[in-house]
Amino acid sequence: MRRIQKIIIISMVLLFIGGSLWAAASEDTVLTLEKALSVAKEQNLDILSAQQELVRAKGKLTEARAGGLPSLNLGAGYTRREKPDLAGNDEENIFGAALTLTQPLYQGGKIRAGKQQASIEIQQAEYYYVEIAEQVALNVYNRFYAVLLEKENVKTAEDAFAFAEKYLDEVKKKHVLGLATGLEITRAEKQQAESRTALIRARNNLEVAKINLLELLNVKLDTSYTIEGNLSYAPVAGQPEESLKKALAYRPDYQRAKLQVDVQDQQIRIAQSGLKPSASVSGSYRYDDPEQAYYESGDTWQVRLTVDIPVMDSGLTHGRIVQQKALREQTMRNVEKKEESIRSEVSSVYLDLKTAAQVLEEAKLNLKLAEETLRLAEVGYREGVGIQLDVLDARASLTQARREYSAAVKDYAFAIVRLRKAEGVLTEEPVLP
């Protein structure tokens, strides 16, 4: 619980200083991954909503505590009589006031169970906040990496377009010398047009990715900014057994599910209180207009002890107890289901991580082969032992290989992030370059 409270306190502090931090970010127009995570903690709507869930839970605890505390009520009355009554009292105005103090003594354990339940729900709200913070952080990584990927795709498209322009100039020069045909010029122009279209599409995709990121951060879309960072990765070492152990210890959704069993235990006690005695004591003071002839005194004091002993409720309480016990059993099954889900998620993430690493190695090798293929195709075409289509195909393959390599780096880096999320420690152990 100290870990959860620490996260919440830090986030609350960030919320207060967030405005100045983001103002600074707007001035220097730089948004790094670390700053994006910080801004999300301060401004993301889901996180702000989760903070209010904690406020609501604390309000329920205050309400539950009030059930066992004394209550004081003040009442006043005023009557105006137009005609004399049978006793001959002809006063037209009658005033009265009463003050009543009530203290519950025993409510069959309902008050105590209610307070314990409210305390547990505060813990649940704290875990819920961390759960939302973890999910938002995962989304920030995903969208930030998407921006970095699109930046790499723009670089790849720019390089391909620059190559197409240069290649078209070379073919035109060869055509002047009679070393290239009109068909070769047409092919080169077609490659240039396709490269220009790909560049336009890549730049548009980059802008869309930036918009998606800013939307998640709850930042105005007209904010001037520059996304700073590069796609990178570092091999991760770990064992599924260790990650599973960590997940069962730290996953907020799992801890919240277990706490729900405790909530149901208190619900059973509240239901059982229906057939238990209850007692309360009350004292009242009443003051009435002393000028009324039929009042001996203007002050009236009264103290009352009330004890209620249920004898029969026709099965009402029993029915409630049966319902709550059934809900507890369902909650236990949900805990077991959540544990199995976590086991499956951890195993799947490790498989995805292994696959991403293998794909990355293949993409790296494919990129080297594509670069070498283009080099050989260009040499062969210049020396007259190759054809133009070899160069065009090799260049297209290189562009595709670069895109696939960038995507593979992004997938591997995000798989590491998913592992931290599966372990329940993403916000405490961020994956930063």
Automatic annotation (TrEMBL):
Protein name (Swiss-Prot/TrEMBL): Outer membrane efflux protein
Top-rank taxon, per record: Bacteria
Coiled-coil region list: 353-380
Alphabetized Pfam families for the sequence: OEP
Keywords: Cell outer membrane, Coiled coil, Membrane, Transmembrane, Transmembrane beta strand, Transport
GO cellular component, one term: efflux pump complex
Keyword Membrane: yes
GO molecular function terms attached to this record: efflux transmembrane transporter activity; porin activity
